[in-house]
Amino acid sequence: MLLIPCPWCGERDVHEFHCGGEAHITRPAGADTIDDAAWADYLFMRQNPKGLYYERWNHAHGCRKWFHVVRDTVSDQILAVYQMDEAPPDIPGRSS
Amino acid sequence: MQKYSIFSLARNALSRHENWREAWRSPEPKPEYDVVIVGGGGHGLATAYYLAKEHGITNVAVVEKGWLGGGNTGRNTTIVRSNYLWDESAGLYEHSLKLWEGLSQKLNFNVMFSQRGVLNLAHNLHDLRELSRRVNANRLNGIDSEILDAQGVKDFCPLIDTSLTLRYPVLGASLQRRGGVARHDAVAWGFARAADALGVDIIQNCEVTGILRDGDAVQGLETSRGTIKANKVGVVVAGHCSVLANMAGFRLPIESHPLQALVSEPVKPVLDCVVMSNAVHAYISQSDKGELVIGAGIDSYVSYSQRGGFDVVEDTLHAVVELFPMFSRMRMLRQWGGIVDVCPDASPIIGKTPVQGLYFNCGWGTGGFKATPGSGNVFAHTIARDEPHPLNAPFALDRFTSGALIDEHGAAAVAH
Amino acid sequence: MGSGSMADARSPLAHLDGATVIERDGVRLAENPDAGKVNLRGDAGDAVWLAAIQAAVEIDLPQAPNTSTETPPLSALWLAPDEWMLVCADGSEGDVVASLEGAVAEFHASVVDVTDARTVFRLSGAGARNLLAKGCALDLHPRAFGLGDVAQTMLAKAAVILHQTTDDADEAGPVFDIYVPRSFADYLWSWLTDAIG
Amino acid sequence: MRRQRFRLPDGGRVDRAAEVAFSFNGRRYFGHKGDTLASALLANGVHLVGRSFKYHRPRGIFGSGSEEPNALVQLGAGPRTDPNMRATTVELFEGLRATSQNCWPSLRFDLRGINDRFSALLPAGFYYKTFMRPARLWMFYEKHIRKAAGLGRAPDGCDPDRYEQTHAHCDVLVIGAGPAGLAAAQAAGAAGARVILADEQAELGGSLLSEPGRHIQVGDGTPADWLGATLAGLAGMDEVTLLPRTTAFGYYADNFVGLLERVGDHLPGDDGMLRQRLWKVRAKQVILATGAIERSLVFAENDRPGIMLAGAARTYVNRYGVAPGSRTVVFTNNDSAYAAALDMAAAGVGVEAVVDLRNQVEGDWPRLAREAGIPVMQGHTITGTRGRHRVSAVSVMRLNDAGDGVAGDVRQLKCDSVAMSGGWSPAVHLFSQARGALTFDEQEGTFRPGEAMQAVRSVGACDDAARLADCLSAGVEAGRSAALDVGCDGAQIAAPAVGEPALGPMQPAWRAPSDRKGVRMFVDFQNDVTAKDLDLAVREGYHSIEHVKRYTTTGMGTDQGKTGNVNALAIVAQQLGAEIPAVGVTTFRAPYTPVTFGAITGSHVRGLFDPVRRTPMHDWHVEQGAKFEDVGQWKRAWYYPRGEETMRQAVDREVKAARDGVGILDYSTLGKIDIRGPDAAEFLNRVYTNGWKKLGVGRCRYGVMLRDDGMVMDDGVTTRLGENHFLMTTTTGNAASVLSWLEEWLQTEWPDLKVYCTSVTEQYATVSICGPKARDLLAGLAPDMTLDPQNFRHMSMQEGTVAGIAARVLRVSFTGEVGFEINVPSRYGRALWDALIAEGELHGITPYGTEAMHVLRAEKGFFIAGQESDGTVTPLDLGMDWIVNWTKGDFIGRRSLSRSDTVRDDRKQLVGLFTSDPETVLDEGTQIVATVKDKPPMDMIGHVTSSYYSPNLGRSIAMAMIQGGRGRKGETLYAPMPDKVIEVTVTDPIFFDPDGQRLNG
Ligand SMILES: Cc1cc2nc3c(=O)[nH]c(=O)nc-3n(C[C@H](O)[C@H](O)[C@H](O)COP(=O)(O)OP(=O)(O)OC[C@H]3O[C@@H](n4cnc5c(N)ncnc54)[C@H](O)[C@@H]3O)c2cc1C
Ligand SMILES: NC(=O)c1ccc[n+]([C@@H]2O[C@H](COP(=O)([O-])OP(=O)(O)OC[C@H]3O[C@@H](n4cnc5c(N)ncnc54)[C@H](O)[C@@H]3O)[C@@H](O)[C@H]2O)c1
Ligand SMILES: Cc1cc2nc3c(=O)[nH]c(=O)nc-3n(C[C@H](O)[C@H](O)[C@H](O)COP(=O)(O)O)c2cc1C
Ligand SMILES: [Zn+2]
Question: B350, D98, D552, D885: which one has the fewest Cβ atoms less than 10 Å from its Cβ?
Fold first, then answer.
């Protein structure tokens, strides 16, 4: 069972959290001008990588804050945690 | 192909079973094939079988990174049914169910397809409404399906606690009598053996590491056992489909999640049908060996670990004990996980891709075992003809662009 | 809206006909519905705002996660980096809300009376930590969770706020206030009763 | 004291003063406190305990702990029965009742023993090759296959026992309380760490409990002295928790370890007793000291009762004071079995010989054996055994020079027991579950822990240490360093000195040669898998060890192959001509030993399965005999039958009352969200499809929320309480998800918007009153409010007091009648309700439930999110184009409404349906066709989403989603039901008061 480090509340059991999936997906601005394919890309298409994964979590049963996590989807190890407004960190020795 | 029967068993008993031949060969990969299927799960093997059997394409290889059936085919709760809501799904799954009926004979391998009936329980008014919608749709699609009230549930499966003291009492159920279970491993092995007999090369321990392209067309594959050329490649790798799509340069609307299951210790038969409940989240049947086979939920996060959290198993067993109080003293013998490829609309993607000659069959998520023969059948058609079979045409990747999704979520939160 | 006047207030455990105290095996559990609660949100990074709050209700908001401050009759529980719950004497929540609203009028902030949204179960005694551990995944060892500490977490299948209000060394043993969503009160009470055994 | 024939005159840790009566297969026996069922049976000379899974061969007691594959029994009866209990781990208690399983009519005479005769027809995987023809008979065959399968019987009633769970945190979790684990716990505890030490056995001590110490010294004393002192020391440490009878069953991510404590299993127990406790431990550091599991030897006819592991035999003698027999043969490929031989000999058991597969045995242990007069037959093997229900003799032959065959004469050794040892496999189960890598040790033929993936250390025999000295020193070192890693640097302790004989090398012998071809050698005793089955699997192309496992079922029994798996893979490797590490192990999965569902369920049973959420007025509904409906976790009053009323009668009455007089509904479950901030209106503009900027303070507006894929997600009325302050309502089921949805957009997509959202769902009790007399009713209780229609308009809000309670009153309507939603602090909900009911008596007030509410709204054609919409429906499909504001800018879901599929004009659209017979009420979920065919398939063009009898219209009404429905008004369509076809006409979905006269009345 994963232990997720909420940047505010500290490490808590995964069952206190809601997983928000892939991070850093930009919602297209000016939605009226983009075509169906670009919109579908935003809505549905995902990296779903085997390896380093930048994702979003929400401490749903705690402080209700959203934050970013870098996790290895093979080992499930969490390598970094950062705030919503921060840029994704580089993980030494790993490329995504 | 050496024939399997009670007589051949008896004959071989005389020679101490020393004359059985290999169920399939283990050939070295050839430099080139007409078609290469990536993924030696049930779907990939069935695809190869039907390519050879129905389309006469026998210069085919199935490449599997590990061992045949080691993916979700070998780790699922084996529920087979076709009572899906939407016409598109019903068509596809019913096609598959019809192929299941008679599959052991066709493959000359007993896949132990057991039509013992599948109950989907309803625990609230919303469930009942959705259930009635689905059963009515099934009926008009010519799929056997009926509604049972609480008493009917009790009569059909006396073990279920149908008392009103349940936190969420059982209000009724749908029943598909033709539904049931099959022996997961046997499905992979049976298709492999039959495909091999038709000339298909089955190559295990061969991981695809790259997809070779000439412009927009596929040319072949890089694998851990060298380059294999082919102008047609069918990718059927379930939880790993995004990894392969990435090699080919596109993305899929898919996330890979752990889905867990567990078995109890074996006991004498007590449960003779399949029971599924979405509202309290439990899926359970008893195998022919005697263990209770129980499906748990998916973990919420992406993972390629074939493991999940204990909490998910806990939730499932809470529900099992709630529905079957006498199972409280049964014991969990083994738990495991698979990597399921979940699509936003809980329906698969079967068809062409942006790359010419490259076909994908994925997104079966939590419920593709039941589709194994049907999926292989229509996918073989798609590859052989370079156009979808009418049954899989609606399941094309471009439905995500148009918005014409086939949303089976409403029908089953987890579509085992 | 303040409190009612004539009408009878009812606790969510009213149907237990007063059987809302349990004492057994070194734990004491009692419903303690009588406290005002006010949810406050604002920018903790804004010293001016913090000063305005302090001026209005004379309490410093805790800044460290999972902690509380106390200036009788008020205490302030940290809920999130921009969210606190002020606990005050029963019936005074209207005044607290009014003071706060006055103070924060010029800021982007939010003051909401949540007195009735949760009831409080007061759990105390030497066995309290072990009892909580049956349903709560937090580390409740005194080294990890002590006087004044606060956590929002799950207790059995209910989301609660946990607040230790008395030290372990105290005669009565540690005291925990468990803030329970009102509609879950009966469930959690049953669960705790069962867990006490 | 009653005679126990094989109980040794002295020795052992059982309490000889306490006699315990129990029964096995109906016969009464006696044992002692401290016995296991297995040791007590052996004490009484009972070796035959059960029958094997497939061939129903007689099976006896094989091991002495949780590795046991054979001696499985059914305990107890009725609802408190437990199938498949290992006799070796069941502690004896007064009145214990055990029976053999998987045999009929009796254990000694089992009819299915016939399978053994036909075993040639039943090799691995035979069922895949037959039972295929004729196809129709398969279900018949299967029924009989099923009957033959399974072992014990499932309980047949509600479990009378209780289970509980607890969470625990510690600095160091030590699993296994043998010498290594004890030393680790002691060192970590001394350093000041919070320690949990768990061991699956009833007593802490591990292998030391079976160590008589004749040849081993620890410090200045015996191993037992050290054990006693160490346990006393640990018991005195405040921060050390000792958990005997506690199995670590699963090692999950982030050092989460599941422990199962058997609290009451060893006690007779009454109904309701606490049986087991599941510990959910989060450990900063884990030390595995789980010891090693002895392997069996794979030799001809190795499965007869009386043949057991040497370590087990040693345990029975030393720990339980029980002789496994009177004449025994020891069979081994390593030195450890000599200790067993010596201890048995010392206890007076006749040791016929130690048959040793090794050619040269010269070390300390063989020397000690020889000195004790035990014949040692080096370079020999057992080639067969005899005895029906118990071994009676073994055949022994010399190995040929190559060691791969036999030579010379056969010697028969008479015996009534055999103690064998094929070497020891480190118990790496938990390490591997923790994703640690295993490495293969050629020398010992074992897999041992390699690189760890979590904060875990392995010490002692589970790390391949065979000497006690190494176990103790590694334990101390691990305990110390684990404590240091968590910042505890208190006292240091040193490992005691150990004097022990040296251990010679073992020699792998994966399949002992025999002079007979075709003789059966069992690898998996429970599932009857023989070496030949493994050969067959490989021959048939099942080369991967995972295939072999699944094809033969080796290692898939209740013991999960603890004693046999390494043998199996070594035999497969031989057959494939491959190295053992290349074949690899099958995946170690939780649980280490089986765990009851009850323990995993804990207290979440009997009404505590899931929370029941209650509104402040819940008790009133109960008092009135309301029927309840589950909506999410809420219980909502569904309808209030009076006297003998049927549901339909009650609902009709409630519905009519709401239109003719005044109805009252408990609406407290409605989601309520307080939204504040300078950007609140802008925020609502983005989350709802319509415009919010111009809404006046004190006014309410209805809104529909979409997901970004354009599909309807929720709806509700939102009130502007102030310039920057709104109160949003959501549907009952979506209250929590809408709040998190809002937070998600605020925090992730629009962090620049200054808005705060706070849930006030539970802060307010909400009572909805509606009907022509609603205003009069309210007026009677709210004298300070202005209620006339001009001043209190539809879709507006007033604050004031109702029944003396401060209240916020919204004039809104979900029924088409004049309606008021009165919100008061929850504690006054019941008081408000009582006051309204009392005051309402005058007006014939009628409480109505959710069913009547649904009818009322359906009469008005209002949709319900989740009923008319199912995640595939846009507001345009619902005919609500009016609620989509295209000019206000972007909002969630907007772009999706213009995708090629969402703009199709043959999409399913919301319409009303009238059945041709007004009395016929369609089933909700009925499918609709335009053309009826004789038989399926038929083209379905839509389905019924809501359907009721409308007492106000005096006929049935239905809502449906129909392809191109809006263009079909007046068309006749059909609902083909199993027994009949129902004709329907498409209508507008607004059935009642289409102009909304009543609302403004
Ligand atoms: C716990 C669980 C319970 C389930 N229960 C049910 C159920 O009751 N009923 C039901 O219908 N469905 C169920 N499912 C779903 C079902 O198992 C799957 O949908 C189905 O088996 C998928 O089959 P497949 O052949 O597509 O995939 P798989 O069997 O997963 O085969 C894909 C193969 O591709 C291989 N592969 C991956 N990457 C590469 C590469 N780079 N190169 C070469 N090979 C590669 C993998 O090793 C794997 O063997 C369940 C799934 C799980 C995990
Ligand atoms: N070749 C040999 O002669 C040989 C081989 C192995 C061990 N030994 C001897 O055995 C001793 C080993 O000491 P040790 O401390 O490493 O092991 P041990 O066998 O003494 O203790 C291990 C303990 O762990 C417990 N355990 C195992 N798995 C568990 C689980 N999942 N949950 C809870 N408890 C669990 C067991 O019940 C046992 O009590 C040494 O004295 C060593 O000399 C000798
Ligand atoms: C339908 C079904 C029944 C199973 N029955 C058993 C069983 O009786 N005993 C057992 O040990 N494992 C059983 N398993 C689990 C497998 O041993 C194994 O855990 C699973 O195939 C996943 O593979 P892995 O654990 O090797 O990753 C069963 C699996 C399935 C899918
Ligand atoms: Zn947090």
Answer: D885
Domain C19-34+117-196 has CATH 3.10.180.10: no
Ligand 1, pocket-test mutation among B366, B378, B392, most atoms within 8 A of CB: B366
Question: Tokens 């706060």 correspond to what residue?
Answer: C100
d(CA B155, CA B176): 15
Q: CATH: 3.40.50.300, 3.20.20.70, 3.30.70.2740, 3.50.50.60. Which one for D296-422?
A: 3.50.50.60
Task: Quote the ligand 2 centre to B333 CA distance (angstroms).
Answer: 22
User: Which pLDDT value is given to residue D445?
Assistant: 87
Q: How close is the nearest chain D Cα to the Cα of B68, in Å?
A: 8
Q: Calculate how close chain B gets to A31, using CA atoms only, in Å.
A: 14
Q: How far is CA B37 from CA A51, B149, D831, in A?
A: 24, 46, 70
Record: contact C33-D827, CB cut-off 8 A: yes
- Closest residue to A15, CB basis, from C65, C79, C154: C154
Contact B318 D609 (CB under 8 A): yes
Give the Cα separation of D499 and D219 in Å (integer): 8
Model ipTM?
A: 0.97
> Tens digit of pLDDT for each residue in D211-224?
999 999 999 999 99
> To the nearest whole percent, how much of chain D has pLDDT over 90?
94
Instruction: Report the chain B residue with the minimal C-alpha distance to residue A2.
Output: B309
- CA angle D617/D618/D624 to nearest 5° reads 95
Q: Is A38 helix (H, G, I), strand (E, B) or coil?
A: helix
Average pLDDT over residues A65-71: 98
Report the predicted TM-score, pTM, of the whole model to 2 decimal places: 0.97
Q: How far is the CA of B374 from the centre of ligand 1 (A)?
A: 15
Model pLDDT, residue D729: 98
Q: How many residues does chain C have?
A: 197
Reading the block at residue B45, the tokens are 């093997």
CA distance D658 to chain C (A): 26
CATH number of this structure's domain D15-116, picked from the four choices 3.30.230.70, 3.10.20.440, 3.40.50.300, 2.60.120.260: 3.10.20.440
What is the C-alpha to C-alpha distance for residues B139 and D975, in angstroms, rounded to an integer?
12
CATH of domain C36-113: 3.30.70.1520
DSSP per-residue string spanning B305-352: SS---HHHHHHHHHHHHHH-GGGGG-EEEEEEEEEEEE-TTS--EEEE
State in Å: Cα D579 to ligand 2 middle: 28
Which chain A residues in 51-70 lie under 8 Å from chain C, judged by CB atoms? Answer: 61-65
Query: Which ligand lies nearest the alpha carbon of D470?
Result: 2
In contact, D913 and D987? CB cutoff 8 Å? yes
Residues 6 or more apart in contact with residue B66 via CB below 8 angstroms: B204, B205, D544
Q: Do D256 and A1 touch (CB under 8 A)?
A: yes
Judged by CB atoms closer than 8 Å, whether chains meet at A74 and B401 is answered as no
Return the ∠ at Cα D795 (arms to D790 and D797), rounded to 5°: 80
D-chain residues near A18 (CB < 8 A): 740
Token pair listed for B246: 């990435």
CA–CA gap between residue D856 and residue D843 (Å, rounded): 19
Domain D162-292+426-499, classified CATH 3.30.70.260, yes or no: no
Nearest alpha-carbon partner for A47 in D86, B241, D51:
B241
Task: Give the gyration radius of chain D's Cα atoms.
Answer: 38
pLDDT at B411: 46
CA of D255 to the centre of ligand 3 (A): 24
Q: Does the C-beta of B186 come closer than 6 Å to ligand 1? A: no
Mean of the per-residue pLDDT values for chain A? 94
Interface test with D, best of B301, B328, B400 (most D CBs within 10 A): B328
